[in-house]
Amino acid sequence: MFWSEKSFWFFIGLFIATVFAIFFPSLVIWLALFSSIFLGFLGWRKIRVEHFVPKSKAFKQIQKIQKRRDKIAVDKHHHINDQITYIETKWGYNQEQKRIIDRLLQERAYIHIYHRLNASLLPQLIMLVDQCNQKEQKGCKREVARRIRELTLLMKKELQHKKLEQQDGFETTLEVYDYLLKEGENK
Fold first, then answer.
1. Which of 116, 140, 163, 181 could form a disulfide with 132, with the two C-beta atoms 3.0–4.6 Å apart?
2. Rounded (to 5) percent helix, strand, coil in the chain
3. Residue 37 and residue 97 in one domain
4. How far from chain centre, in Å, is Cα 147?
5. Same domain as 87, residue 18
6. Which range marks the domain in which residue 13 is found?
7. Which residues are CB-neighbours of 151 under 8 A, at least 6 positions away?
8. Of 93-102, 136-145, 161-170, 173-182, which has the strongest mean pLDDT?
């Protein structure tokens, strides 16, 4: 709504300032100076409150741990993304496979299968693609296509697993809220 409490107080202040300007023109300069100092103080206080960071050792340690975990997660994402992009540039995917892989990367749903992807599946597929590109054999192409299909099926299952986990978490949260509401009503 246009007439909020803040706009009401703003217009009252504007009215008082115009009354001062009409009846006491010599005090307008002092009023402007006082109001600018007061606004500066309020702005400094607001910035200080919004950017407050606790200075305890425990908070700093937690912050360091969180930064380290974020960096590890980003490194994992870049590593998987680089391997998948390499396979795409050297071999290619069909549209459905590309869509599944993009969703997996976007949602970062590979957390449970990261080590399996990183340690065996993707490096073996990269090696097979490189060998197949060098030899240009038909049986080799079928093997690469079969492995890419199996890999995308695994990724599709992982996406479904993540979706079910989110749904279960949402349902559990709803059950907890319902229980707490019933307990609150009984008291």
1. 140
2. 85, 0, 15
3. no
4. 31
5. no
6. 5-50
7. 121, 122, 125
8. 93-102
- Interior/surface letters 111-131, b for 16+ CB within 10 angstroms, e for the rest: eebeeebeeebbeebbebbee
CA-based end-to-end distance of the chain: 38
Based on the fold, state whether residues 75 and 166 are members of the same structural domain.
yes
Whether residue 21 is contained in a domain is answered as yes
46 and 82 assigned to the same domain: no
Q: Would you call 76 exposed, middle or buried from its count of C-beta atoms within 10 A (0-12, 13-18, 19+)?
A: middle
Average of pLDDT values for 151-167? 87
Q: Where do we find the tokens 């009023």?
A: 31
For 104-124, write each residue's pLDDT tens digit: 889 888 888 888 888 889 999
Rounded to two decimals, the pTM is: 0.59
Check whether residue 117 and residue 153 sit in a common domain: yes
Residues 135 and 72 in one domain: yes
